[in-house]
From TrEMBL, chain A:
Database matches in SUPFAM superfamilies: Acyl-CoA N-acyltransferases (Nat)
Family, as annotated: Belongs to the acetyltransferase family. MAK3 subfamily.
Source taxonomy: Eukaryota, Fungi, Dikarya, Ascomycota, Saccharomycotina
Annotated protein name in UniProt: N-acetyltransferase domain-containing protein
PANTHER family: N-ALPHA-ACETYLTRANSFERASE 30 (PTHR45896:SF1)
Automatic annotation (TrEMBL), chain B:
The name this protein goes by in its record: Uncharacterized protein
Keywords of the record: Cytoplasm
Lineage: Eukaryota, Fungi, Dikarya, Ascomycota, Saccharomycotina
Major place of residence: cytoplasm
Annotated family: Belongs to the MAK10 family.
Length: 144, 735
């Protein structure tokens, strides 16, 4: 089973597709889980847009809808993702939504380059260290 | 390719065919649905092997056609050059299966299988055994828990035992191989083979350093005779790196002895991956870095006291190699990073294997020099106070140990280590203050003509905490975590704010130092006045305490050096913030267009690490906005020209102050009489600070030139190459 299938199976409402004349031209997959029993964390696992359809705001729309869904349906405290330091286009795209670089990850993708962990803060909880947050009440444990 | 074709490629003979049974059972599963056994988690399914999926099933790999015949020295040299490239690919965090183990000769020799042919036996095999032995020793460093698996080094060995080649025997075989190759008719590949064999032999000695025990502060790198191999290795590498040799190596005839076969035949936990190897020039760079960094590491043997050791460890940690790739941050070589920690701190907690120095005694020495020397708490015999102090030291030790381990981390991890250390120092500070306020009644250790308690423990803890707070911001800048003008402004603004606290606190440490020196000077008067037993006791006390005078004087100089250094950084950060604010008028400080978070939430997340810190408290977002409002108001009171002229004046004045402080810093570094390897690096740092100071004024002029242009017509670029780690050049130009 691929990671995509894993995401799709567990958070079907967070897998969004962009279609043109019946053809899938873009996709974003995300998940939401409790993080360290202290906050609800959304995670964007993958975003892809068909080469032919790039530069038309499809990725922006997919991110926007996915972020809104994670906030509205799951009450996320923060949304995170990782992207390669050299992937300037992806960085620009996410950072335009307010995502901040909170950590640099050394050779994250098992090659020469590092990655940035980006976080979009949603609630106050995202700016407090987990150690200092009260445990989540009625938080669903990670089922997977 | 259909299933039948794929199965035929698997060459299955000894297994029972269950295909039809499998499909019969799985036909009950509805198409598109996922079924899950309770025995494993769904996430684990993502790591499972998908049989017959060419991207995941290594059994489907096409077998590599090998013809490992080496008949000429040219071919032998090619094998060695290529294998050296495989070793470097492994050191660059590729797996052994795609790098070193992709070599037929490695695969054979590590499994004690024979290799044939005179050239193979006499020249290639010793080289391969040398490589296996080198990998074995580096693997030991990798699994020692000081660096990170799959981040710094991949230690998956496919269940093969790399320790099959005994070190001493391998060295002997390498030397015999050199002798044999030298006995062959003189030729170009002959010298290349000799150099490559020698290089591997030198590499085998690197990890031996962890076996060397010395007395801290009493040795020098030269006195450790076994380290001269590094000089020889660098000479060999310089010879190999000559352009003609590199070009010659690139034209050598290939031998079909590298393949992905081990991924298919041996215990492999990864999906199929292409082979990885560095080209010859990159391999030589990698090994040159290894030996150069190793030699720098050995300077730890030449430090003479804990101040020098502390400075050296900080220099080692922040040591970087300039690279033209703006997205790359090159710290010390991974082998040297792991070695450094294992060489510095031994299993018995001793430092360099010293009989006298261990983590605790080193900590006490640093503590003593910073603020504890000649304090009343130090000489107190009160059991309660001594127990209290002991408890405090026990709490401080993990934070100090964190620093000692941080130095070996990669640049990204270093920041995470500092971040972790901050919480520890913050909680210790609270405890330390409580302990010292409670013990004040008993000790009454106060500043002259004052009721203000000296509080040596809290002063030490607060000093380290403040340096770590600043370090966290410095490292955030270095790692490019502040992506644009708005965020970089925030970073420099908070940095200046925190450095102000640090500067004030160093002044306090200087006051403590002065107090102890004054107290010593006052002894002679006291002794003169005293009579009988009291006089003798005082004289005795003086004789003990006066031994600390040279140390106190050296620390006074050191604190002055630190004070000047941090004043420079504070002013530089302030100037940068001013220039960035100026760009704000054109919208460079605005939030991104589609921003889904408020500025306040972003501010709080940006400074998450400082949110829980008690003292100094993070300025609130409201306070930040108030400062920005005041700056705006100030600018609005003047015409744009007058405001520009005023800002320029402020920047220029501060810039002159920075230059004066840099000159002062250079003089203080000279006075400290550090060993050359420390003073050189400190002076090099001041040169880059000077450059950062000039660059800031230049940015201001550039910003002025484009002040009337809209944002879309202006480009702001951060340049890192050849600039100070913490002060990238901010280049402003019309598009």
């Amino acid at each position: 089973m691929s990671e995509i299938e894993f995401f799709l199976n567990n958070w079907p409402n967070l897998t969004l597709m962009a279609k043109h004349q019946g053809k899938v031209i873009g996709c974003i997959i995300s998940k939401v889980e409790p993080h360290k029993h202290a906050r609800i964390r959304g995670y964007i696992g993958m975003l892809a847009v068909d080469n032919e359809y790039r530069g038309r705001g499809i990725a922006k729309e997919l991110i926007s809808q996915s972020v809104d869904a994670m906030i509205d349906a799951y009450r996320c405290d923060e949304i995170i993702l990782e992207t390669e330091v050299v992937n300037k286009a992806a960085l620009r795209l996410y950072e335009n939504f307010g995502f901040l670089r909170v950590k640099r990850l050394f050779r994250y993708y098992l090659n020469k380059h590092d990655a940035f962990r980006l976080i979009l803060p949603v609630t106050e909880k995202s700016s407090v260290r987990s150690t200092f947050l009260p445990p989540l009440e009625d938080a669903p444990e990670s089922k997977y | 390719m259909d299933v039948g074709q794929q199965l035929s490629r698997l060459n299955i003979r000894d297994y029972e065919d269950i295909t039809s049974e499998f499909f019969a059972i799985t036909s009950a599963i509805e198409y598109g649905s996922i079924v899950k056994s309770k025995q494993f988690k769904l996430l684990e399914g993502t790591h499972a092997l998908e049989v017959l999926n060419p991207k995941l099933d290594t059994a489907l790999l096409e077998p590599g056609i090998l013809h490992p015949v080496v008949e000429t020295l040219d071919q032998a040299a090619w094998v060695m050059v290529r294998l050296l490239g495989s070793v470097c690919a492994w050191l660059e965090n590729n797996s052994l299966s795609v790098s070193v183990l992709s070599c037929y000769f490695v695969e054979q020799l590590i499994q004690r299988k024979p290799v044939t042919g005179e050239l193979v036996e006499r020249c290639v095999a010793p080289f391969v055994k040398g490589v296996i032995s080198f990998v074995s020793s580096v693997l030991k460093l990798g699994v020692a828990g000081v660096i990170y698996e799959e981040e710094d080094l991949n230690t998956q060995t496919m269940d093969l035992d790399f320790s099959v080649c005994d070190g001493e025997q391998t060295v002997l075989e390498l030397r015999n191989a050199v002798t044999w190759v030298r006995s062959q008719p003189e030729s170009r590949p002959q010298q290349l083979c000799v150099d490559l064999l020698s290089l591997v032999e030198h590499s085998l000695h690197i990890c031996e350093i962890t076996q060397v025990s010395v007395e801290l502060y009493e040795t020098s790198p030269q006195s450790v005779s076994s380290v001269s191999f590094a000089d020889s290795a660098l000479e060999t590498l310089a010879r190999l790196a000559e352009p003609e040799t590199v070009a010659f190596a690139a034209a050598l005839p290939e031998v079909a002895c590298f393949s992905a076969n081990v991924q298919k035949t041996l215990n492999n936990r990864s999906p199929p991956k292409p082979l990885a190897h560095s080209d010859f020039a990159s391999s030589l760079e990698n090994f040159t870095k290894l030996f150069t960094d190793f030699q720098f590491m050995l300077n730890v043997l030449a430090v003479r006291d804990s101040v020098e050791l502390y400075e050296f460890l900080n220099l080692f940690m922040t040591r970087r190699q300039f690279t033209t790739d703006p997205d790359e941050i090159l710290g010390n070589h991974v082998v040297v990073r792991a070695l450094m920690q294992l060489f510095l701190i031994r299993d018995d907690r001793s430092i360099l294997g010293s009989r006298r120095w261990n983590i605790s005694t080193l900590l006490m020495d640093v503590f003593s020099k910073i603020s504890f020397q000649n304090s009343r708490l130090q000489s107190s015999t009160d059991d309660e106070l001594r127990n209290g102090l002991e408890k405090m030291i026990i709490q401080i030790e993990p934070a100090f140990y964190n620093f000692l381990t941080c130095i070996s981390q990669n640049p990204s991890r270093q920041r995470q280590f500092v971040n972790k250390e901050l919480i520890i120092w913050d909680s210790i500070q609270v405890e330390a203050e409580n302990f010292e306020l409670e013990s004040h009644a008993k000790l009454h250790d106060t500043f002259a003509n004052s009721e203000l308690p000296v509080m040596p423990v809290s002063s030490f803890v607060y000093y380290l905490k403040l340096t770590k707070m600043a370090e966290l911001l410095f490292k955030s800048i270095e790692l490019c975590l502040f992506k644009d003008c708005r965020e970089l402004h925030l970073g420099y603004w908070l940095l200046a704010n925190q450095l102000d606290y640090l500067v004030q606190h160093i002044k306090r440490l200087l006051d403590i130092n002065q107090l102890r020196q004054t107290q010593l000077a006052a002894f002679s008067k006291k002794i003169k006045k005293a009579k009988g037993d009291k006089k003798a006791k005082l004289r005795e006390e003086y004789e003990i305490k006066k031994q600390s005078l040279p140390q106190l004087q050296k620390m006074e100089l050191y604190f002055n050096m630190l004070l000047t250094k941090y004043q420079i950084h504070k002013s530089l950060a302030e100037n940068r913030a001013t220039v960035l604010r100026m760009l704000g008028k054109q919208g460079f400080m605005d939030l991104p267009k589609l921003c889904k978070a408020s500025e306040e939430t972003l501010y709080n997340l940006q400074f998450k690490s400082f949110q829980s810190i008690g003292v100094p408290q993070l300025p609130s977002f409201k306070e930040y906005k108030e400062m920005m409002k005041q700056e705006k108001w100030l600018a609005s009171q003047l015409s744009p020209e007058a405001n520009a002229s005023y800002q320029k004046g402020v920047l220029k004045q501060k810039s002159d102050e920075i230059n004066a402080n840099i000159r002062r810093l250079e003089a203080l570094v000279a006075k400290m009489q550090f060993p050359q390897f420390i003073s050189e690096r400190l002076i090099q740092d001041t040169k880059l600070l000077k450059k950062a100071n000039v660059a800031c004024l230049l940015t201001f002029s550039q910003a002025l030139k484009v002040a009337d242009l809209p944002k879309s017509h202006v480009a702001v670029v951060f340049e890192k190459y050849d600039h100070h780690l913490y002060y990238p050049n901010i280049k402003v130009a019309a598009k």
